[in-house]
Design goal:
Layout (H helix, E strand, L loop, with lengths): L1 E5 L7 H16 L3 E4 L5 H12 L3 E7 L14 E5 L2 H10 L3 E4 L4 H15 L7 E4 L6 H12 L7 H4 L1 E3 L2 H11 L4
Helix pairs in contact: 1-2, 1-7
């Protein structure tokens, strides 16, 4: 499976890096491909290193103004550089079979809402997981539930996103949803 991961390029403490490393190992050992923002820094680097070290493939999509921070890859891994953030998001999603939203800032939130909006309108059926490491997205989860309860979502929240508290649950959900044994 090609699994797109939206996440931070910031250097973060262990409560976020530990589950990120665990998730990356599970992806790599499962033979999956990481589709990610291509950065060689912060949490993005932690996940890319973990997937690579565990035997998975890397498919990066950097953006022109951040190309100097992109990871250098060799075949069979791949790196492309988009002209802007909109093209980057489109390429990331076009290369993906599934999406995992990990901890991040405004860029990650932008990417997350885009894929959820596409799902809401039936423009994609790929599974989306929100990995809630250290309760980072507890407030967002509550907001999504309020949106559902008050009629702002035309489809059930469970049809849009699966909330996973641990990496194993995230990967198990993705593999089950795609029929991977």
């Amino acid at each position: 499976m090609n699994i797109c991961v939206f996440l931070s390029a910031a250097d973060l403490d262990d409560r976020y890096t530990r589950p990120a490393r665990e998730f990356a190992e599970l992806l790599g050992r499962g033979g999956h491909t990481l589709v990610w923002g291509g950065s060689e820094s912060g949490l993005m680097k932690v996940v890319a290193d973990g997937v690579h070290e565990a035997g998975g493939r890397l498919m990066g999509v950097s953006v022109d103004f951040l190309a100097d921070r992109a990871r250098t890859v060799t075949a069979p891994d791949e790196m492309v550089v988009a002209k802007d953030l909109a093209e980057r998001k489109a390429l990331l999603l076009a290369k993906a079979d599934a999406v995992v939203i990990m901890v991040g800032g405004t860029g990650t939130l932008d990417e997350a809402t885009e894929i959820l909006e596409l799902k809401k309108h039936g423009k994609t059926t790929m599974p989306v997981v929100l990995l809630n490491s250290a309760g980072f997205y507890d407030g967002l989860k509550e907001q999504f539930r309020r949106m559902e309860d008050e009629g702002f979502l035309p489809v059930p929240l469970t049809d849009l996103v699966f909330f996973a508290e641990e990496p194993l649950g995230a990967v198990a959900y993705l593999e089950e949803s795609q029929g991977v044994e």
